Amino acid sequence: MAVYKRKGKEGEAGEESGGHEARRSKTRQALIEASLDLMAEDRTFSSLSLREVTKAAGVVPAAFYRHFRGMDSLGLELVDESFRALRARMREVRATPLPAEKIIRSSMTTYVRYVREQHRYFRFAIREYFSGSTTTRMAIRNEIRLFVSELATDLALLVPDRRITSIDLQMIAQMVVNNMVMITEQVLELPAERPEAEQDVIDQAAKQLRVIFLGVGQWNKAQG
Hints:
Layout: H1 9-39, H2 50-57, H3 61-64, H4 71-95, H5 100-117, H6 119-131, H7 134-158, H8 166-188, H9 196-223
């Protein structure tokens, strides 16, 4: 006769806790996905209401407050989701031991393809950057400032010229990031039926960055 052992209370509590956390995570992600889907209809985040987000996510409004304090809190989560993984990917590319020319092309290839993969997040970020609520707009600007700061730190290693000050590096990094914002708009407008258009944008972006760094080199000579 088979004997079945009853799980101890500790094991049961652990499973219940794990299941509860999984459900919480699923609901949280459903709210994020619902927001992105609603904004796919050319709407801004500030035009969304809590009730329509919860309805689209298939949860009751009360469940929303178990995850976010309000719509501004959800907006901040979307900003974080948009930039966190991107910064990590770009840091990995810049840390690769390659010649500067190859790092430029690799960076632009990684960036363009990531924006296409996560186009809903970046469509949200671009809209909110220019016309969003004060909360989300400031959060996006803070993320961009962090991106600029990290890039400037890496440029100090890629461009080991003592004549270039930390202020100069910040200025160069800002020009690069400003250019990437414009590239983002182009990427989001790429037609799905023309895959070769992606390569055109990558080529153009890489050339623009080379021009920026060429200008830095000429400026150094003038300073010398």
